[in-house]
Amino acid sequence: MAWWLDLIFDVIVAGAIAVIALALASFVKAQIRSFGRRSDRFDETLMNFLATVARYAVLVFAAIFILARFGIQTASLIAVLGAAGIAIGLALQGTLSNLASGLMLLAFRPFNTGDYVEAGGKSGTVTEISLFTTELTTPDNVQVFVPNRDVWDGPITNYSAHEERRVDLVLGVGYGANLKEVENVIRGVLDAEGRLHDDKPVFVKVTALGDSAVEFTVRVWVARGDYFDVKCDLTAALKEAMDDAGIDIPYPTRTIVNG
Question: Which residues make Cβ contacts (< 8 Å) with residue 238, sequence separation at least 6?
């Protein structure tokens, strides 16, 4: 009869452990999510994932205590689960690698949603960062999913990281041109462009003597959102200004001599 009493006692204790574990797991999960919402340093997706992992960790430990209460050898069970985990890990190593890379991206945040980046051999505006893939939208409105492993393992170029960007232009003029006059024409075009940042130095210098042209390099600073428009507009404006000033912009030619 005593064994019935022991069994009833064990069931009561196991039930109490289960109830406490469920309450504790829910509490831990809620606290982690709440912390993630209050902090700007951590991504919500990352904190939700960690909250779920913490909840299941509490439940697993509770299950081990319950099994031990009924006299079941948990050491062998843990060994079996460990071996199964290794086998599953080997079978899903690519997926798990994407998951690990996703956690690193969410934790260290080399880019955010809305940034224009080049990563994993692709470029576009970041639409979403999930645990397994990073979603990009290309300038021609094509949706691209890049595995997080490819993103994290390679170079990441974030074109939206800073509020200012530098526009670099190279302009070639003929060897017979007056270099001082060319510089004055270039600076006149730059002075007429109102989107340039006045607090940054303007660079206009001869930087190379090419095969058929003297090359001027022009460097100016603009707001990030104006970069492409300013680059295109300055290219066209410099061409028109050179034409108006009668300054030749040479292009490579090839002379064929028939023997």
Answer: 169, 171, 186, 189, 218
